[in-house]
């Protein structure tokens, strides 16, 4: 019986219910889903809810609500139940969205081209020229294929009779398509049988259409066009989606400083020089895109971009100036514009909207103020929407006076009563709740017209009667399932035929910023591994030995911990409880030097490499950081912390495996490997220098443990570690990846290969060390051997000098080679 399931479900009154056509009677296309909810055990639904939340956390799906204390780490909120739409209903939505995208594209072409709509009086000049989104420098832009609007989104809501209305148009840089795809991947796993049996339409071909359409209209080039996604950076609210789309589309994810304009063309700064950029899919607001012509204080854009667009040398999607169409004031003029430009009526009406700049509309809005929402007509008016029903008496009079004082700056819009959709109550084992819902639908341009994503992003309000449905106001989301029409197949996607000239070798288009992040990803991953091993060994010895028995080995470990700044005090001895707290804090406290802090740095670098990391790679990093954060606090125990260190070391070894087995050996991989080798070389030298400074220590197990070479030593010697064989294994053995020689020779070889393409880059700093290593003899392998001590000191110093040389040579763009090398 559905009684328990619907006990808290509010029956729809004066609004549309997405799931039920009558109380407890599901609509036909919802029946299978409702039956499954009735039959599934509470334990199974709890598992599904937990699985959805776990996947969101592990995949690092975030949405930054700026007022939220979690900031960029706020997890994306996804309800376990999808929104289901029948194929008959979707056919009507699809046709209306295609028509609307076509219409808005034609309006944009006219405003920045022929101006006939203004001349004929179909658009008031004040509505265009008074809008900050109208960019005069963009007039006369060359629109390839008569397309200025390549990606479009419509925000829809239902009226009580089930009619869909357009609430807002998103034409500047529509967001949400990537989140919709992520929602699909998560929810389809929660209900795999239902997803299969309902024959839900696939989303992936939409992204292929978008990519192929942009390639089709790109400026002509020999070989495939270079397409990039321009992001404001990792602190943007939807940065996860930027990285997700870049990986899904195969675009390079770039920031403004990664690009430059030379001779009217846009170039990407790469390791091998400047690469010509043909397409920019932007996620920047219009005016931030070019500090030279649009907004002088922008540090996010590319100086000269507007000029490159006017010359037709780069395709920007969406076209600069498309923000103009997002004004709510335009909605009231669309029916007449549709008749004029397309010769047909508007298929889906906009929510009733009046621009107060028209005297009759102003008076009508004032008369019915309690039923309307007052919004700014232009983005330069930094004002929030206000609801007329909230104003009375003197406040109402003040609002009316404000409207009369500046009528052109406001629009009055009918108050939307959203339809309601079911969400799963996470606080109850078996209960549905009714929440307000709005739908965002996406369309992209193709050579044959606009193509609509068969699904979209459903946004759910926080309460049962929300007046605004917004992710920035703490709302959640739903996957949207569009059921397939069994009488027709999936439409084919036209694609440009490729040839031999389209072949690409990986890594040619990596930006210098990406290379730098890969270098530091290698360093931080190795640093985390070294720190975890040092803390694990130190805590293990702390448990095994009493303070009275701690010998030279212990003193060496303490010296290593001080060198790594894992201890708060420089005193040689302190109480066990103080030492324990210091070591535990070094594992879990992100505010202090130690493992958690290094893992957080690794996470931040990895966050800027999202499109370069596989999903498995990212989940591994994300899980380790979350586990360490969860253990932070006064309830830490030695045994629990040691277990956590074991898991961390295993996870970091897994990351190393991803790098060795899952990454193409391009320049990006090489720089990541250089970073890893530099960090390991420094650590090995420090460990060996510290060990050699305490030659009286009888036990060398800690040295082999830190170098992860215990098994190798035992398999060779089957005896207690002694100085000569230990130093031979960790210094001279070229077959041991944890030896100084292995890292030194490998690093020298990498730099030599890099020099072949980019010129000298620091191999000269290592050459004396390589020669000293080759001259090292067996008799020199003694803890007080002068040649060994000098070698370790020189290698340690050379590794620091090399890191600085690489920073100046490749990451700061001061080299003559980087400034003068061009690649078309």
Please explain how this structure is put together:
The protein is α+β, with helices and mostly antiparallel strands. The chain is 45% helix and 13% strand. The protein is built from 27 helices and 22 strands. Strands 3, 4, 5, 17, 18, 19, 20 and 21 form an 8-stranded mixed beta sheet that branches. α20 (667-692) packs antiparallel against α24 and α20 (667-692) runs antiparallel to α26. The termini are far apart.
Largest sheet, in brief, is: 8 strands, mixed
Using only CA atoms, what is the Rg?
A: 31 Å
Low-confidence region ranges: 489-494, 813-824
Beginning-to-end CA distance, first to last residue:
68 Å
Number of helices: 27
What is the strand tally? 22
* Beta-strand fraction estimate: 5-15%
Compute the average pLDDT. 86
* Shape by Cα distribution: globular
Indicate the structural class.
alpha+beta
Helix content: 40-55%
Give a quick summary of the entry.
With 824 residues, the protein is of the alpha+beta class. The protein is built from 27 helices and 22 strands.
Features:
single chain, 8-stranded mixed sheet, Dna Ligase, domain 1, 824 residues, 4-stranded parallel sheet, 45% helix, alpha+beta, disordered C terminus
Q: Any chance you could write out the topology, listing elements then pairs?
A:
Layout: E1 20-22, E2 25-26, H1 31-39, H2 42-58, E3 83-85, H3 87-111, H4 116-119, H5 125-129, E4 151-158, E5 164-170, H6 177-190, H7 192-197, H8 204-217, E6 227-230, H9 239-249, E7 252-254, E8 259-262, E9 265-270, E10 273-277, E11 279-282, H10 305-310, E12 315-317, H11 334-342, E13 353-355, H12 359-367, E14 372-376, E15 386-387, H13 393-405, E16 410-414, E17 419-424, E18 432-446, E19 449-452, E20 457-460, E21 476-482, H14 512-544, H15 552-563, H16 576-588, H17 595-607, H18 615-630, H19 638-662, H20 667-692, H21 701-706, H22 710-717, H23 723-732, H24 740-758, H25 763-775, H26 786-811, H27 816-820, E22 822-823
Parallel strand pairs: 3-21, 6-7, 6-11, 10-22, 11-12
Antiparallel strand pairs: 1-2, 4-5, 4-18, 8-9, 9-10, 13-16, 14-15, 14-16, 17-18, 18-19, 18-20, 20-21
Helix pairs in contact: 14-15, 14-16, 14-17, 14-19, 14-20, 15-20, 17-18, 18-19, 20-24, 20-26, 24-25, 25-26
